[in-house]
Design goal:
single chain, alpha/beta, Spore Coat Polysaccharide Biosynthesis Protein SpsA, Chain A, seven-stranded mixed β-sheet, 9 strands, about 35% helix, binds 2-acetamido-2-deoxy-beta-D-glucopyranose, transferase, transmembrane helix
């Protein structure tokens, strides 16, 4: 584990090199995959799949152990919250693996998974893949938010579970007063303890902030032309931030009634269309310009491409601690389709998915 960590700090170089090598390897890889496809077709002729295609089979992750300088998980826990559902399970597994693999104190994590449905096969998958993982599961009642959601530009953004992050303060136990919320389409390539320890300086939330992004485009003309709405940002220097990676002071969130504030903006969105995206704009309306900014390396987002087409994108320059495939394209789908983007090869090493047909082949 330690040697792995040390080989990574200059990720852009690593990325370039590995993409180059992978490009070289691709042609032979394609031949192997093509052979597999033929095989699969053969199998499907002789045996019907015994389980539903949603049930994924994963390889067991190694057990990651604490380094010597780590306090006990009781004394210095790191709370991570993510959503969990069968559709994104492959992404979640890769994210969890990446977090543990790069951590000096992997036993100090406590994962808080938010699910809208009880899917026993998802939990048994987690148990089998990470037998040592300390985690809790919380039921998110999607009825709580379903009627409040208005259609965005991408259907995937309208899933109720995307909105679960708004209710973290209601769902997590009272002793959890700080949490890192993470999307499921990302991998961490550095010790996330560093992000965890950020000094929030009295703010409710920390995330990378982008003050040069054109903020205007996140809201509609109707929003900007209505003085009572447009004045929302008065006296602030609003900067974009991405809600896929956030450190949240849960106690401050609860005391400040932020859940209700988000719901109020969602109600306004339902009446007049004031933005195009899903759960993100209400966060901007309430908090943009008033968060604790952390280094950009903690969320290299947009690797999934834009929301409409999901075109390939390359990495932004600078150090990277977290890679995030926000946008339409997801690395596991693009890799499976055998039309991956170059950046998708950076996700592949964390993929624990083992299609059952492969076990048959071996
Ligand atoms: C997963 O493991 C936990 C803790 O050992 C156990 O309580 C739970 O029943 C297991 N779930 C499944 C579906 O195997
Ligand atoms: C920002 O975007 C808006 C609308 O898309 C455009 O009208 C405006 O000129 C842009 N501003 C800058 C500084 O690029």
């Amino acid at each position: 584990m330690a040697s792995w960590r040390r080989s990574l700090p200059s990720l852009p170089l690593f990325g370039l090199l590995s993409s180059f090598i992978l490009l070289l390897l691709q042609s032979s890889h394609h031949v192997a995959r093509a052979a597999n496809i033929v095989d699969n077709a053969h199998h499907s002729l002789i045996r019907k799949p015994t389980s539903s295609p949603n049930v994924l089979v994963f390889q067991e992750a190694p057990s990651f152990r604490n380094g010597e300088a780590c306090g006990s998980p009781e004394i210095s826990p790191i709370h991570i919250s993510m959503t969990l559902d069968a559709n994104y399970l492959r992404g979640t597994m890769a994210a969890v693996l990446s977090i543990l693999q790069h951590s000096m104190c992997p036993e100090n994590f406590e994962f808080h998974f938010l699910c809208s449905r009880f899917e026993p096969e998802v939990f048994s998958s987690i148990n089998a893949t990470f037998p040592y993982l300390r985690y809790k599961v919380y039921r998110f009642d999607s009825n709580r938010v379903r009627r409040k959601i208005s259609k965005s530009i991408r259907q995937a953004l309208d899933q109720p579970l995307n909105y679960a992050r708004i209710y973290l303060a209601d769902m997590l136990p009272i002793h959890v007063n700080r949490v890192i919320y993470l999307d499921s389409d990302l991998v961490v390539v550095d010790d996330i303890a560093e992000l965890w320890e950020v000094n929030l300086e009295g703010k409710v939330l920390a995330a990378p902030e982008y003050c040069h992004a054109n903020f205007t485009k996140y809201f509609t003309d109707l929003f900007w032309s209505d003085p009572s709405l447009a004045k929302t940002f008065e006296g602030r220097n609003p900067c974009y931030f991405n809600t896929g990676v956030m450190v949240v002071d849960i106690e401050k969130w609860r005391k400040g009634g932020y859940t209700q504030k988000v719901e109020e903006w969602m109600a306004i969105q339902k009446l007049k269309r004031i933005y195009h995206l899903g759960s993100l704009p209400p966060f901007l309306l309430i908090l943009a310009g008033n968060i604790k900014a952390v280094d950009h390396r903690w969320n290299q987002h947009g690797l999934g491409g834009d929301n409409l087409e999901g075109k390939c994108r390359s990495l932004h320059p600078g150090p990277i601690s977290l890679l995030h495939w926000s946008g339409k394209g997801k690395p596991w789908l693009r890799l499976d389709s055998r039309k991956p983007c170059t950046v998708d090869h950076l996700w592949a090493p964390y993929d624990l998915y083992r299609p059952s047909t492969h076990t048959l082949d071996e």
